[in-house]
Fold this sequence. Notes:
This protein is an alpha/beta fold. It has 3 domains: 58-151 and 284-351, Periplasmic binding protein-like II (D-Maltodextrin-Binding Protein, domain 2, 3-Layer(aba) Sandwich); 153-282, Periplasmic binding protein-like II (D-Maltodextrin-Binding Protein, domain 2, 3-Layer(aba) Sandwich), CATH 3.40.190.10; 356-385, no CATH class. Helix content is 37%, strand content 16%. The chain contains 13 helices and 10 strands. It has helices at 2-26, 30-33, 69-82, 106-114, 125-134, 182-193, 205-214, 229-232, 249-252, 295-309, 339-348, 353-364, 374-387, and strands at residues 58-62, 96-100, 120-124, 144-159, 173-175, 199-201, 219-224, 241-242, 257-261, 276-288. Strands 1, 2, 3, 4, 5, 6, 7, 8, 9 and 10 form a 10-stranded mixed beta sheet that branches. Helix 12 (353-364) crosses helix 13 (374-387). 35% of the residues are buried.
Amino acid sequence: MRAGLFIALIAAAWLGGQVHDSLAQTQPSASQREPAKAPPRKESVPRKETGRSADPYTVGFVAGTPQCTEFAIAQDIASMLASGQETGPHGEVALRVLPIVGNGGTRNVLDVLTLAGADVAIAPVVLVDRLREAKTFGDISDKLAYIAPLYIEEFHLLARPEIAGLTDLAGKRVNLGEDGSAGAVLGREVLNRLGVKISESNLGPDAALEGMQKGDISAALLVSGKPVSFLARTGQADGIHFLPIPYSKELMQQDYLPSTLRHEDYPNIIGVDAPVDTIAIKSALYAYNWPARNERFGLLELFVQTLFTRFPEFLGDAHHPKWREVNLAALLPGWRRFRPAERWLQQQTGGEAALRKAFGRFLESQPAANPPDREELFREFLRWRERNPGR
């Protein structure tokens, strides 16, 4: 009996060892379970999802964070284009625009290059140029096309009261925005060019402002078109103010432009006679260069025709002031324009033709006696256009 018990124990131990060895062969090691941290490859273009969209009438519009002007512009387009259209047999809207939250930087470009439902995006021109030159996502020259240049995006550098100038930021914690955003990529570059060494933080706008109010962050950068509604609602809490960013043609070369933040832009932060000098970058509306045989090409063609035809409606007071900087016919050197946009401009002999024709009809409706000055008359015309969108 003892011999039988001894043999049973040996058999159990042997079976346990076999099970352990089997599990060791099937389970990955700790190093296998952890994702590899190899640098991203730069020679291959990200693959675009080309399957049929769940909604073939919806254009995916990648913008910035919900607090930024780029998202407000996307919402302007979505709201305007949804109105005044005929619907389908089941009540569906013929053309819809779906704003998609991005980071205003590299993610916007990557989303358009990869996601089936992402067709267009607002992105800084200098950033897209850098991605193309460095081949970060491979050769994207034929994958992206521009619909139109848009407006400039200003650098907004908020600082705590003890920070009087850029030199005071040396060694301090400064938030440049989410990783890959225009603020993170270009803000880092600008501060390095200016010789300001900081401790970088990469938080969203809300978290950055909260960190400044608590004293955890000394300054925060936001790159977006002025006025940014998120900042316009911000008061001079705890002495938070804008820091000037000096413009130097030799230092900035052709990548950046001089700009100014004024009391009219941020009355709760900037005094009446205390403008703040800063720098800015150009932005543009880019599209995925769908092949003509793809259903998304036809959808984008309808999007361009509708947007360009109704462009004068965006110039009224109800929409963001940045619309008044847009010239649809302007060129973007080094890039090809999306083919339907180029055809529309050629047919219309310039993006301003429809606006001038509408302005002439407006003048005919005004009394001839004691006309106001042209600027005031033009503003009245824009308000008239909003009340009479079909004329």
